[in-house]
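Ex. 9. Protein: Sphingomyelin phosphodiesterase C-terminal domain-containing protein.
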Amino acid sequence: RAGFYSVKVQPRLQLVSLNMNFCSRENFWLLINSTDPGGQLEWLIQILQNAENNGDKVHIIGHIPPGVCMKVWSWNYYRIVNRYEGTIAAQFFGHTHVDEFEVFYDEETLTRAVSVAFIAPSVTTYIDLNPGFRIYHIDGDYPQSSHLVLDHETYILNLTEANETLNPKWVRLYGLREAYGMETVSPVDMDNLISRFLRDDRLFQ
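Predicted C-alpha cells for Sphingomyelin phosphodiesterase C-terminal domain-containing protein:
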C-alpha cells in the first residue's frame, strides 16, 4: 500500500516498514499535503492499536530518520511513538550515512525517554566515509519476550588500509554496551549516554 507495509515475522512481533518519501524534505509534492500523505500515519496507528490489543510488539524500519523529516510529519509521528511506547519495541533507520541515534521523549515534560531510533552507518563511501554495517542483538522469540534491542555491533572497512594492501577486510569497530559501559541500551540508558557525552568531551569524541 503506497510503499508501506506490515508483516508478522514472529508470533508476537510485527515488522512495520514505512515509506519515508512521504516525509522527505526533498519531496516537493508534500507542499500539497505534508500532514499525512498517503494516509500512512493513520494506517500506522491502526497497526499499532491492533498490535497493542493483541499484546504484540512492533519493530519500525524506514530510510529517513524522523528527525530529518518535514516538521509537521515528524511532530505527528512523535505523538504516535509517545502513545504506543509500550508497543514499539525498536526503530531502525539509515539515510544519514553516519552512526547515530535519536531519542524520543514524553510529550508532557520532554524529560522521560520513551523510545530510541537507531541509525546505522552506510556501506557506501558517500561522503568520504569508510563503509560500515551493523548487527543488532534482539531479545529473542519466547513467551513474554520484550523484543527490545539488547546491544549492537558496528563493523567498518578501512579504505585507507584496503588501498594500501589491496586486501579489504571488515573489522569490528565497537559494541555499544562494551564501548560505553552500559548495562542496557534502553531509552533511559541512551538518554543517560547523551548526558555523559555532554559532561565528557573525550567520551563524546
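Check your answer against this statement. Residues 5-204 form one domain.
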